Amino acid sequence: MTTLLLAAPTLVHEARPKSLDDSLRVVHARRLRELREALEPAQGPEAGVWSRWSAVRLLDHLLSAWFEPERKLIEEEYHMLESGHAARLWTAAELVTALHWQIAHSVGLCHHPAEFCRITLKLETVLEHWCDEVEDAVGSVDWQDLSGEEHQALVSAVEEEPTYVT
User: Fold this and answer.
1) From CA 23, how far away is CA 135, in angstroms rounded?
2) What CA–CA distance (Å, rounded) separates 130 from 40?
3) Which sign, positive or negative, has the C-alpha torsion 73, 75, 78, 82?
4) How many other C-beta atoms can be found within 10 angstroms of the C-beta atom of residue 144?
5) C-alpha dihedral over 112, 109, 95, 92, to 10 degrees?
6) Could you tell me the pTM of the whole model?
7) Which of 14, 42, 106, 137 has the fewest CB atoms within 10 Å of its CB?
8) 76-104 CB burial, b ≥16 within 10 A, e <16
9) How far apart are CA 90 and CA 84, in angstroms?
10) CA pair distance 96, 126, nearest whole angstrom
11) Secondary structure of the chain: what % helix, strand, coil (to 5)?
12) CA 52 to mean position of chain CA atoms
């Protein structure tokens, strides 16, 4: 009789780059691409009110799921960063937050295609700036320099879809 041993799926992490900025570049590129893909149809001349409204809702979701947790994590880790980065990160985060608030609270924005396009393009630009600043700020931090809790928090923030092997 043959015994079949079944194991629970094991999470396999691919080899991580030594620096956090390399990991973040990959994740930020994917997230910015998702953002552009969500906004692009609503920014076109043929887009209607409901297309723009749906884009605003999706934008809320993307920023809540990505930007807000990343901002909180970065703010908690200011002590690990070289001086000067904290002020630039704070400024970039405040710009993202202000534009997000403006998009979410502008009455009738979805009825004004040119204004919608202008403000969402600004938000895309500011988010690119945020990503660049975060990558620059963490560029000097090595994975080995992190405590266990810091390591786990950053791994959760920068990992893409894990690969499961059975």
Assistant:
1) 9
2) 20
3) positive
4) 7
5) -70
6) 0.76
7) 14
8) ebeebbeeebeebbeebbebbeebbeebe
9) 11
10) 6
11) 70, 5, 25
12) 21
Q: Return the bridge partners of 164, or none.
A: 11
Count of CB atoms situated within 10 Å of the CB of 155 = 15
Sign of the CA dihedral 112, 113, 114, 118? positive
Backbone angles phi, psi at 28, to 5 degrees: -60, -40
One pLDDT digit (tens) per residue for the chain, 166 residues: 433 333 333 333 444 445 667 778 888 999 999 999 989 999 988 899 999 999 999 998 888 888 998 898 888 877 777 778 888 999 999 999 999 999 988 878 889 999 999 999 999 999 999 999 998 888 766 666 667 776 666 666 655 443 333 2
Element (H, E) at 164: strand 163-165
Q: How many CB atoms lie within 10 A of CB 154?
A: 22
